Amino acid sequence: MTTASGTTEVSREPEGAREQAGFDEIHILWISEGMSCDGDTVSMTASGQPAIEDIVLGLIPGLPKAHLYNKVLSPSLGGEDFLVPFRAAAAGELSPFILVIEGSIPNQNIIEGDGYWTSFGNDLKTGEPLTLNWWIDRLAPKAWAVVAAGTCATYGGIHAMAGNPTGSMGLADYLGWDFRSQGALPIVNVPGCPIQPENFMETLTWLLYHAAGSAPPPPLDEMLRPQWLFGKTVHEGCDRAAYYEQADFAKDYNSPKCQVKVGCWGPVVNCNVPKRGWMGGLGGCPNVGGICIGCTMPGFPDTFMPFMDEPTGGSLSSSLIRPYGAFIRRMRAITSMAVNKEPKWRHNRPELTSGYDPHWRA
């Protein structure tokens, strides 16, 4: 129920009945004050299937009415005007809502009482900055669903690499991998540096259909990623994969061939970008000549550095496939010569040599 102040009160219906009926209205509280560059928000705006505008304007049948609060997309002037729904949710006066966190979570404990790493608004009584950790501690337990947008929020990303002074981590590291939201959902991780636009919006749409009571919870893998998006490797969807099978490897970045020897980690990275593209089905790292550096993976970036070196195991696997690949290439070349010829009966001479037999004639 919406009050005169514009906040939505918690439903008084029995818990089971409400869960079965679903929600007619839901809020999306997006905080990008983690250790990040806001690139995930910017990338999300490029989605077209669906577009964030379609959800906010209610153009997709069956979804609950969604109210989005994101600083980049907010029509407010910022400041306290923008913070109203966040403060209401923290006080338990706004429900239901989906909490989206962008950016890695710094370890505030290592500097407790001696400053802060990142903040979002100020304490109304003391004027002191409110840390990202303060908001997560109060919002996550009240949220119907919690979503980590981008690799920084999912697994820590760049800010969590070896030698960092912040102790940064992913949202599941902070809340616990066994965390469950008010909607009985685990954290939903949508990695990417930044997120692939449709990957995030497709996941959000599934969550909203689930909130409406018309879809089951989204299936997640052991790293809490949507299975249907991250269940295959880059290599399995790459249009250069056939070159790997033939042991035909690129020696520089201008080549259209398999880039494993020049630093591509595609065979072991869970990501669908070669299949999906980046914007409007176009682009995507290997599709445009770039190597896969594993930005959707929990070990990024440390496990995949240095980026331009041949991946661990790449030399062995490429060596093992060379004899097979050389044989296959040769056999295919012979077959190609055979199938690239026209049959001998296609000519402009007066006799018919196609084998036509008018057997029905006397």
TrEMBL record:
UniProt keyword Iron-sulfur, yes or no: yes
Residue ranges annotated for the NADH:ubiquinone oxidoreductase-like 20kDa subunit domain, each copy included: 37-205
Pfam families referenced in this protein's UniProt entry, alphabetically: NiFe_hyd_SSU_C, Oxidored_q6
Cofactor: [4Fe-4S] cluster
Leader sequence residues: none
Domain of life: Bacteria
UniProtKB keywords: 4Fe-4S, Iron, Iron-sulfur, Metal-binding, Oxidoreductase, Signal
Domain Cytochrome-c3 hydrogenase C-terminal residue range list: 230-307
Compartment(s) where it occurs, according to its Swiss-Prot or TrEMBL record: Cell envelope
InterPro entries in UniProt: Cytochrome-c3_hydrogenase_C (IPR027394), NADH_UbQ_OxRdtase-like_20kDa (IPR006137), NiFe-Hase_small_C_sf (IPR037148), NiFe_Hase_small_N_sf (IPR037024), NiFe_hydrogenase_ssu (IPR001821)
SUPFAM superfamilies, per the entry: HydA/Nqo6-like
Subunit and interaction comment: Heterodimer of a large and a small subunit.
Entry similarity comment: Belongs to the [NiFe]/[NiFeSe] hydrogenase small subunit family.
UniProt protein name: Hydrogenase small subunit
